[in-house]
Every structure is written in C-alpha cells, then in structure tokens.
Amino acid sequence: xxxxxxxxxxxxxxxxxxxxxxxxxxxxxxxxxxxxxxxxxxxxxxxxxxxxxxxxxxxxxxxxxxxxxxxxxxxxxxxxxxxxxxxxxxxxxxxxxxxxxxxxxxxxxxxxxxxxxxxxxxxxxxxxxxxxxxxxxxxxxxxxxxxxxxxxxxxxxxxxxxxxxxxxxxxxxxxxxxxxxxxxxxxxxxxxxxxxxxxxxxxxxxxxxxxxxxxxxxxxxxxxxxxxxxxxxxxxxxxxxxxxxxxxxxxxxxxxxxxxxxxxxxxxxxxxxxxxxxxxxxxxxxxxxxxxxxxxxxxxx
Amino acid sequence: xxxxxxxxxxxxxxxxxxxxxxxxxxxxxxxxxxxxxxxxxxxxxxxxxxxxxxxxxxxxxxxxxxxxxxxxxxxxxxxxxxxxxxxxxxxxxxxxxxxxxxxxxxxxxxxxxxxxxxxxxxxxxxxxxxxxxxxxxxxxxxxxxxxxxxxxxxxxxxxxxxxxxxxxxxxxxxxxxxxxxxxxxxxxxxxxxxxxxxxxxxxxxxxxxxxxxxxxxxxxxxxxxxxxxxxxxxxxxxxxxxxxxxxxxxxxxxxxxxxxxxxxxxxxxxxxxxxxxxxxxxxxxxxxxxxxxxxxxxxxxxxxxxxxxxxxxxxxxxxxxx
Lengths: 301, 322
Known about the structure:
The complex is a heterodimer.
Chain A: H1 3-15, H2 33-43, H3 50-61, H4 82-92, H5 98-109, H6 117-124, E1 128-129, H7 149-161, H8 168-184, E2 198-199, E3 202-203, H9 208-217, H10 223-239, H11 243-255, H12 273-282
Helix pairs in contact in A: 1-12, 2-3, 2-4, 2-12, 4-5, 4-7, 7-8, 7-9, 9-10, 9-11, 10-11, 11-12
Chain B: H1 3-10, E1 17-18, E2 37-43, H2 51-62, E3 70-75, H3 90-102, E4 107-112, H4 120-126, H5 129-132, H6 136-139, E5 140-142, E6 148-151, E7 160-163, H7 164-167, E8 171-181, E9 185-187, H8 199-202, H9 207-212, H10 214-225, E10 229-240, E11 248-258, H11 261-271, H12 280-284, E12 296-300, H13 303-306
Parallel strand pairs in B: 2-12, 3-4, 3-8, 4-5, 8-10
Antiparallel strand pairs in B: 2-11, 6-7, 8-9, 10-11
C-alpha cells in the first residue's frame, strides 16, 4: 500500500466526489472536467472505487458535443482542450468507440491559429520580428486560438496513447508536429513556460509546472535529446515551493524512468481537489504509469 | 496583418513586433460622460507608511459608500521575481482589507486569476500574501478555478463566462500595480480586470482576450464591471521599462484612487510621464470615463507634485507626455 501520503489523498478524493459523479476544483463546488480527470486517474484500478469511477465517466461523456469535443464543465457550452483528457481517459478505460474516435477526429482537426497561412506567410517574408516558429502544428486551449505548451502536451499524451488504434499515420504526423512545436518553444534556461520563450528579444524564464507537462508530452523522444531538460526538471522539483508543480514534475520524471525518492508521509491538509489527485498520481505507488506513453508512436525509442 | 491579429496569434504576454507598427497621434478625444470625476492621489513613500489612513482619506475624497456591500479585492498577482516588483504589494492588500471592513462592508473577499501560472496559492505565497494578509487563505478565491456563470453580449460574444465570486460582488476594488506594459503601454486599474477571466475555460494565458484585442478586451471588461468598480493603484513602488514582468522597480510614492477607472488610469499615466490621450485603451474608453485633465477633479496631491517619468521601451517612447 502507498502509506499515509497516498491513502490520505485517495481518501480525500473518495469523500469529495460530487453527487453527479464528478469532482470539483474545491469541495462543495460544481464538477469540472480537469479535476475529474485527475481524480479518475488517481483512483483507477481500485476495486472499491469502480462504481464511483463509472459514474464519473458517465458524467464526463454527457459533456461531449456533436463535433467530438468535450465541454470543461456542465455549465459551459463550448468544447475545449479537455478533449485531450477525454481521449486519455478513454484509452485508460479501454474504450475505443465511435464517440471517442470523434474526439480524436476533433484533436486531429484543431490546429493552433498561429499556423494559419497568413501567419506563416508573414513569418516567411520576415514581416514579424519574433523568434516564434509558426511552422509547426500544436494545440490551443480553445479552437481558433494560438497553440500553447500545456494543451499541446495533453494532446500529445492522448494521441500517443491511441496511436496504434485509429488514423495511425495522421496521428503520427500530428504527434511529430506537436513535439517539434514543444521543442521549438523551449526557453533559453532549458525548461518551458506557457509557450513564449522570448519577447522583444528578451528571453523569458521557464516555469516548473509547464516544464513537467512539456516533458510528459515529449515521452518517447530520444532520452539524450531530453537529458538537459530532464536535469532542469529535476532541479525544479528540488527547488520549487509549488506543490502542484512538484507533483507534475514527479509524474513527468517517473514517466521518463527517473527514480525519485518517496515523498514524506504527510497527511493530506488542503482543500485543493486537483492537487490531491495529481499528488496521488505522482507517488511511486500511484497511477503515474497510466500517463506513460513511450514507444507507442512509430516505434521510436 | 493587423496588430490585433498578430497579438492574438502570438500571445500578449510575449513575442515580438510587427515591422512598421506605429502608434500614431490620434484625433482629439471626445469629452466623455457628463460631469467630473474625483481622483485622489495620496502620498505613501513606503509600504510601512500608514496606508490605512491614506486609503480612508482617499476613499472619503472620492465619496465611496461601501456599507453593506459585498466587496471583492482584486490585486494584480502575475508572477514572482524577487529582483523586481511585479505584484500588488501585500501591505496594500492588507490595508484595503482593513479599510473596507472598517467602512462597513458586509463581506470582504480577495480574488485573482493569474494569466500565466497554474498554482495561484504558490504565487500568493511568494508575494507574501499568505504571510502578511490576515486570514488570506480563507478569504481568497482562485478566479481561474472558480465556478462560473455566463454573461451575454460581452465583447460581442454570445456567451462569456465569469467567476461567480466576481459576478456576486457588489463592489470590485481593482488593487492594481502601476507598471509599464509591453503591449498596452501601461497596466493600471483597468487592465487588472484581465484576472477575472477564468483560465479553466480560456487557458493560461487567456488567449481569447488577445484575439478580441488587448485594448478592446480592457475596455469590454470595464464596460462589464464599471458600475461596481473602484480603483486603488499601488504606485508606492511601480515598475518601469520592460513591464509588466521584466521591468525594474520605480518608486512613485503614491496610491491613486477613484470610482472612474478611466480617470484613475489617465491620472496614473500622467504621473508616469505618459500621455493618456495616446494610449489606445484609454481613447477607446473615453465614453466610459474621463481622460481630459479638465474633467478630473484631483484630490490630495497634484499630479505635478508627484510626477516622475517611468522609463519606456523604445516601442512606446512616442507615448511620452510632452
């Protein structure tokens, strides 16, 4: 068993599932897709949670729109980046039906708007003074906006998980493009921020949390290519005070096969539902392996 | 390609410039709404000054009645860098909390939704909010992850979502920081409203606002909330140069307050040595409040007595007040 650290967080999640089956960001609030995703992943495979997870999955599926995308909560009308989480969850649950394939279709259709013809032409003719490489296809938070690191990383994880099941060559193409975009937006200090490493020729610093997420998306790339970034991630994990960043970094480093010490046996003492779930996932006996996707695209090592 | 489209594509927090993009002297501004707006400039040379007394005096000068109201304090919490002054100082928030409680507010909450960082409470920790603002954690709402409700017609959108904490407040106090800004020229009380847009829907950064246009979004957010807004701008130590994140500290020694946020920002701009009539968003908001000095009743200190030129990036040197 995972001891006090893991069990106290899982117990917190069990106690704070909403009556509709979802999880909120904070107890007593409405259910949202993002904390529900992490809670479901954290509790996945635990026999006593099976019924609760089925209710959660039923709720999330009710948020799917006709175009295959998913709404971030029942209160919102539009589909967003959480569609990537839906595909990841479907893969984890062994679901490969028409509705999930329509979500993959949506992910394959949606491209960051900076990649449109006008922007690429402006870049080609040097009409833009920017270091941003607009030649790659990433993912936006919302369809019609520009690509950013976090939604691209989530889409990469999702597509790598289903790569062998559906539209394989197109998935492979978007994965490669998404990886190139993430790599092209690496900050000069070796990590990643939201997705803009430079403005007005001033380098911007990376963030611990986004560095962790970017590395999750880059699983399967050559480890030597990522060695420096993994070192940065390890340093961030030591230095950051952010519990959320630390947890995402733990998941990323473990997914890349790095051994980390077990967290101290601290009881759960926060009201942040998503944080509890992400921390539980990142524990050595947690479910971080559900987000492991190495070697699933194009047989790359 | 328009500047607006470029900013939307590349993200306002960052990136580059469109070659040949110039901010030109635009035509004369209209007079704005009827009457005049009171703006109080209170001197505060350091954060250890008696900020509570200064705020009480400024609020009284502006004729604000907060009795029985649900007040939301909205600081500017963006990122943290110990080498500079990105965020509204914790002492200003603590003073505002005491002031609005003392003035009879039914409740006083604090809320913010940073545009780049996911861990809002960690940022608040870095900015010493948890250490220096009494009961901070129990009063604070992460607006990026609050429950939301739709608003119709915002910025031409059929539906736009705002946090319930924001929609439920009777009075939103924009506790802004006096800073230069690499896309808007300056970020003051009106730009501070970007933080009420929920990241859980619009992302980190809130790229939707960039697509609407930065100036357009600033004005739209203020049209949405102007009727229940008040501003207190932290200019005790502001930021000059490459703001809003990478600039350098610039002491201005003032708190600037008012109910008309257009007038407050125009006054702040003049204190910073920036011509507000050349700033896009203030020009666009000229029907919402007062930009002209003749329509602003200056209370407390005069602009001239506290004016100190903030260094401007090359791209914004044409904004300098003549």
